Structures are given as C-alpha cells and as structure tokens.
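Sanity check. The docking grid for S-adenosyl-L-homocysteine depends on where the pocket ends up, so I'm generating a full predicted complex first rather than guessing from homology. Inputs follow.
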Amino acid sequence: MKIKTDENDEYRIPRERMVKTQLIPRGIRDKDVLKVMGRIPRHLFVDKDSRHEAYNDHPLPIGYNQTISQPYMVALMTQELELTGTEKTLEIGTGSGYQTAILAELSREVYTIERVVPLLEKAKSLLQSLGYENIFFKAFDGTLGWEEHAPFDAIIVTAGAPKIPQPLMDQLADGGRLVIPVGDRLTQELIRVTRQGDEFKRKNLGGCRFVDLIGVHGWKE
Ligand code: SAH
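Predicted complex below; grid placement will be based on this.
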C-alpha cells in the first residue's frame, strides 16, 4: 500500500461484501488486487448523491456522459495486467481516478491520460489529497499514447475502441501487457495483448461494455 487508508470507515462492510460477492466468486484470484480493492475508498470517487451505491455491482455516472467502471471489470482488467509493483503503467481514460488509484498501489509509476479536462482535474486533486505521489497526469488524446515516457510495462484502456491504437502497441515494452475493450460502439470484447519482441499475442477475455474511446485512433466525436 502506498497510501494510508481508513479501513474502518462507514463503507467498510459494503466494500468487504463487494470483494466477497462480486470479485472472488467470479474468478478474481490475484491477492493484491483483492487486498487493494478491499481498501480503496471507492465512494470518494463517485458523486455525493451516489455514494450509497458506490460498492454495487454496476458502473455509475461521473458526469460529462462518462462512467466509473463496475468493480468486477476494474478487478479483471487489473488482474490481467499482472502487476508486481515494479511497472511503469499507462492508463488511458482517467475518469473518476478510481482505477488510477488501484494501478498506483500495484505499479511503480502510473501515467494517466484523460481528454475531458474537468474530469482530469477532479481526479488529480482527489488522488493528490489521498497522498499518491507516483501518478503523472495529462489532458490529451490517449490514443496517441505518451511517447516521452514509453515504453510501458502495462497499458490499460478504459474506453471502447474500434481497433487497437497502433501507438499503444508501439509503446508497449517487450514482455508488456495491454488490456483494451475492442468492438463496436455498443459492445466490445476485452482483449489482452502480450508483447514478446515483435510478436503480439492476443487473448479474448470476454464481452464488455464501455463508453467510447474518442480520438485520432479511436471513434470520431
Ligand atoms: N477508469 C475510469 C473510466 C472512466 S470512463 C473510471 O473507472 O472512472 C472512460 C474515460 O475515458 C472517460 O473519462 C473518457 O472521457 C475517457 N476517454 C475517452 N477517449 C479518450 C482518449 N482518446 N484519451 C483519453 N481519455 C479518453
């Protein structure tokens, strides 16, 4: 853990229930992912009026037509990145910053990109107030990646893409993992790409539904 959390807050019980009923029975086995999701205060990443729903089994609106992903989807994507604590990780789609916090706990450094400036600013001030010092923020089109800091050991895209953006493939380190939803605008397949030299191995992790990835190598606005 990189930050101090208050595990005895008023949401401890729903948070523990989330881990026990939504994550473990569906096959989330990575002990560190379970531990971190059992500690991060997800309720702080949603609007005040939806706090009582923060640990429920679905995504929630965060404004600007965007959503915080369902807890299980956050857990699955994180597990598939196989983080060990040494990684330089790139996240496209900061949104609420919830996924960012989890990545920051499990990686060495996180580079996160969001195209909606007010969302980025809000996530940045919350994550900084929680004490994270290993997260770097950028308001930009994430389909272009973050060239100056490449290569990345892990890349996660939390918005649905029509195809895998080439810059993200190029910026993946040898041995690195990329997790991204790919499909049409309504439904996608969650794809994991593992790079070995010039070889990119793909694995389909199943159906999912995300908001649009908008950008040069994504959907047009
Ligand atoms: N991980 C976030 C998910 C937010 S939803 C969370 O759980 O809160 C996806 C986010 O991707 C939205 O905030 C959206 O604005 C952002 N996004 C879409 N296209 C993008 C792009 N090309 N670059 C960066 N962010 C993008």
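Relevant for the grid: The chain has a mean pLDDT of 97.
Also worth noting: The chain has one domain: 12-208.
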